[in-house]
Specification:
Number of helices: 7
Shape: globular
Number of strands: 9
Order of helices and strands: EHEEEHEEHEHEHHEH
Oligomer: single chain
Radius of gyration: 16 Å
Bound molecules: guanosine-5'-monophosphate
Helix content: 40-55%
CATH topology: Rossmann fold
Structural class: alpha/beta
Distance between the termini: 11 Å
CATH architecture: 3-Layer(aba) Sandwich
Strand content: 15-25%
Length: about 180
């Protein structure tokens, strides 16, 4: 039996990666490791957080059709390598992609059977608080992120399910239960 392809998306800053880290307690999920052209942040290990690749390598991967989807986000490219996901699904594992909205739209078109989940903040104010919480950003950068987040929030109706990020455990439980349903 094929596994379920799950896409977790939502505005930048909503807390997608916290949810994914918690989900890692469930071994029957493959957590796709994306390729990106951005530089590693403190503590990010190549091959774990991301495959950190050059622009040239990313372009090669696009040309060779290695991505299930890819998108530009905040000046960098991000893409999901297809092979590990295909292998996991074929062996009956669920595969989870944590990606931004444009990538989710591509999956919607290329994989209509995928389950698209939109992680929504409890309110825009709560999202703003989280975005402002990253103390390293300038006010200009914060404004840019907030304006992008506003656009991203408008995409919620395109998704199969909207899950509000009140508590991490609740979101994780909702995702596990959605994955367990037959496609
Ligand atoms: P960050 O640079 O903060 O790790 O990620 C920026 C955004 O890129 C996040 O919204 C994240 O979900 C998204 N992202 C990470 N990997 C991929 C990918 O493979 N494809 C797409 N489309 N977005 C991704």
């Amino acid at each position: 039996m094929q596994g379920q392809l799950l896409v977790l998306s939502g505005p930048g800053g909503v807390g997608k990666s916290t949810i994914v880290n918690e989900l890692k307690k469930y071994p029957d999920f493959l957590f796709s490791v994306s390729a990106t052209t951005r530089s590693p942040r403190n503590g990010e290990i190549d091959g774990e957080a991301y495959h950190f690749v050059s622009e040239v390598e990313f372009e090669r991967m696009i040309k060779d059709g290695e991505f299930l989807e890819w998108a530009n986000f905040a000046g960098h490219k991000y893409g999901t390598p297809a092979l590990p996901v295909e292998d996991a699904l074929a062996s009956g594992k669920n595969a989870l992609l944590e990606i931004e909205i444009e990538g989710a739209r591509q999956i919607r078109r290329s994989r209509p059977e995928a389950l698209l989940i939109f992680l929504q903040p409890p309110s825009f104010e709560a999202l703003e608080e989280r975005i402002r919480g990253r103390k390293t950003d300038s006010e200009e950068r914060i404004q840019a992120r907030l304006s992008l987040a506003r656009e991203e929030m408008a995409a919620a109706p395109e998704f199969d399910h909207v899950v509000v990020n009140h508590r991490v455990e609740e979101v994780v439980a909702a995702l596990v239960s959605l994955a367990a349903r037959k496609a």
